[in-house]
Amino acid sequence: MSTTQPGLPTQHGPSTQQGVPPVRMAEPGAGGRFGDFGGRYLPESLVPACLELEAAFRRAWNDEAFKGRYHALLSDYAGRPTPVTACDRLSEELGVRVLLKREDLTHTGSHKINNVIGQALLTVDMGKGRMVAETGAGQHGVATATAAALFGLECVVYMGELDTERQELNVFRMELLGAEVRPVTSGSRTLKDAVNEALRDWVATVGNTHYCLGSVMGPHPYPWLVREFQRIVGEEAREQCRALLAGKDPDLVVACVGGGSNAAGTFAGFVETGAQLVGVEAAGGAAMARGIPGVLHGMRSYLLQDEWGQILEAESISAGLDYPGIGPEHAYLGSSGRARYTTAEDAEVLDALQLLARTEGIIPALEPAHALAWLARACRSGEVPAGSTVMVTLSGRGDKDAEQVMGVLKGNRS
Ligand SMILES: *Cc1c(COP(=O)(O)O)cnc(C)c1O
Q1: Total domain count for the chain?
Q2: Residue 5 lies in a domain
Q3: Which end of the chain is more exposed for a tag (fewer CB within 10 A), N or C?
Q4: In this predicted structure, what is the pLDDT of residue 176?
């Protein structure tokens, strides 16, 4: 990524891009394509399940009654709309005006609830009584178990055996919520193996089971469907920013990227404004910065892989950003130039977490601390000019990470 380019590139704004149709985040092209990315690369046995889901989602998303039920649950159960907070002390520290979209304030503490409520409603609409899900660190598993409990659905969560050992508390949370956690012992015993197992379960049980996938990845229609269920984040934020900025949009919109669902939902609200869009990956899981195009989990996108096409393990302080790929729409937004993708290192992420805690009284999750870490660096280097307005999606709260952060920070001190 260019760090020598002075100031904010403005060529991405829709009004300045002459002759080129503006990038939109609408329905993907035929077969679920976002430019050269996306698609549905699956064994024949899984295609009917995806087609059924695509039809069900298309019907539901055009049905005002479905949308009404979805929005009612988001407000009465999940606590939406979440506020946008203008951060005065952090702004003074960084020399730019920082606004935070507060997904940390939702029920269960992150944006993931928006997606699982939508998919649980779809499950019921399709007449199914069971959801399966994959989970890495456990956050999507807990969210899925939450929605399953709310709707009285049976719930099975696949989790790499290694992850069940590292994330005991989340395993217990899922069990409290009535879900069954099945440890996956194949492959590297982590997230990518859990996705494979969940797909395998789904194909064998599709008559009564929905696969509740956790991010804007996987085969069509998932990247589209999950982005639509997360679009609420960006749409609320755009209106809230306009109210705070006298009708203007922010200069810059920043979100962290694992698979990319909170960023996709955020960008969907701003893609047709002049705001520059920035996605921040973990340096150890930087599929856009260091990956190459390939096929995994039913989609074509940027992936971390070796010269033989073997998928590499992502490694970061933040388990939620440990996915070795990125959603295909981000691959498209990046290659079209509409969004840019950058990275943050573990050490600066810990600094950013403490900076937000001390200046604003908000302890962020490690994932959105990546977005703040990049912003802090870019403000100090002058890459983001002083006086800019910046909207950052705070995708989740830091409670889940407090013990890990304590271990690292106290370890460093002694
Ligand atoms: C799961 C998670 C993420 C990463 O997922 P995306 O699909 O990239 O949004 C980011 N932040 C939090 C708080 C999460 O729980």
Answers
A1: 2
A2: no
A3: C
A4: 98
pLDDT per residue over 315-347, tens digit each? 778 777 778 899 999 999 999 999 999 999 999
What's the CA-to-centroid distance between 334 and ligand 1, angstroms? 19
Contact 26, 264 (CB under 8 A): no
CATH code of the domain covering residue 240: 3.40.50.1100
pLDDT value at position 373? 98
Report the distance separating Cα 42 and Cα 82, nearest Å: 37
Q: Is residue 385 part of a domain?
A: yes
Q: 386: CA distance to ligand 1 center in Å?
A: 29
Ligand 1 pocket check for 215: Cβ under 6 Å: yes
Output the pTM of the full model.
0.94
Determine the structural domain holding residue 192 and report its residue range: 41-74+111-211
105 and 119, same domain (yes or no): no
Is 18 domain-assigned? no
Q: In what order do the strands lie in the sheet with 130-135?
A: 180-184, 154-160, 130-135, 209-211
Question: What parts of the chain have a pLDDT lower than 70?
Answer: 1-21, 413-414
Taking alpha carbons only, the member of 62, 70, 56, 54 closest to residue 123 is 56
Positions annotated as catalytic residues are: 87, 111
